[in-house]
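Please decode residue identities from the backbone states below.
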């Protein structure tokens, strides 16, 4: 379903019901579809809301407005529009950084009063993300090219995935709008939001694959925990960066456990 949020149309997938809402946010070059298997496992207990961030999936792609703050504002406005009162944010990679900023704004935004927890999968840190310059350039020049999307998929997965999942991951990569793609690589991933991390008041639970080549476990210990010391980090042996695609059952169980805690 499309919702007019913050001046643009955001595509939102909803499933299930329950006293707690889980708001799912996707990785760079992904879409809300990465959460489908996870939502299937959780929708009997939770209201599940998965969002295509601006410029990705089926959401509108404006020419500008792709800062971490812009994306965080979209989520805050969506919470208000959907009347969500008791919720957790589940962010992955790029959107992990977005979720951290949303949580940091809770004390000053009445719409966010109901935020109970953050569950983050391999989140981009609150300081510049350590993407090697050559890799950043390859991603910039490879936008919209299937060969580049296929190579990215190979780089960021470690466990086998189905052919259907493979094709969806590639399709999501290829339909990412150029303004959103370039903005994250050249600006958003380099933003520093560490100064406000001390304002986060909710539990933060991090899950990362041991074989994650995009944001390895040491990124969490070196670039996230110093700014979010209350966070816990769990590691999935043998998994890569795309945890919701690679191990949806592990992700669903982790979310359930951390929300229950």
């Amino acid at each position: 379903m499309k919702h007019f949020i913050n001046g643009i149309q955001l595509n939102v997938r909803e499933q299930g019901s329950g006293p707690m809402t889980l708001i799912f946010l996707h990785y760079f070059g992904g879409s809300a579809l990465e959460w489908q298997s996870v939502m299937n496992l959780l929708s009997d207990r939770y209201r599940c809301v998965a969002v295509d961030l601006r410029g990705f999936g089926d959401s509108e792609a404006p020419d500008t407005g792709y800062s971490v703050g812009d994306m965080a504002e979209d989520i805050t406005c969506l919470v208000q529009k959907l009347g969500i009162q008791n919720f957790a944010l589940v962010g992955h990679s790029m959107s992990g950084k977005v979720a951290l900023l949303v949580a940091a704004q809770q004390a000053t935004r009445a719409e966010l009063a109901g935020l109970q927890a953050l569950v983050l999968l391999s989140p981009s840190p609150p300081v510049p993300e350590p993407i090697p310059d050559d890799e950043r350039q390859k991603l910039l020049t490879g936008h919209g090219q299937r060969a580049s999307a296929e190579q990215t998929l190979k780089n960021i997965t470690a466990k086998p995935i189905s052919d259907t999942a493979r094709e969806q991951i590639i399709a999501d990569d290829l339909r990412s709008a150029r303004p959103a793609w370039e903005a994250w690589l050249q600006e958003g991933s380099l933003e520093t939001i560490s100064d406000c991390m001390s304002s986060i008041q909710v539990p933060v639970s991090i899950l990362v694959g041991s074989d994650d080549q995009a944001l390895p476990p040491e990124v969490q210990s070196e670039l996230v925990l110093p700014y979010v010391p209350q966070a816990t980090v769990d590691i999935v042996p043998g998994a890569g960066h795309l945890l919701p695609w690679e191990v949806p059952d592990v992700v669903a169980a982790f979310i359930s456990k951390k929300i229950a805690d």
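Observation: The longest helix spans residues 68-81.
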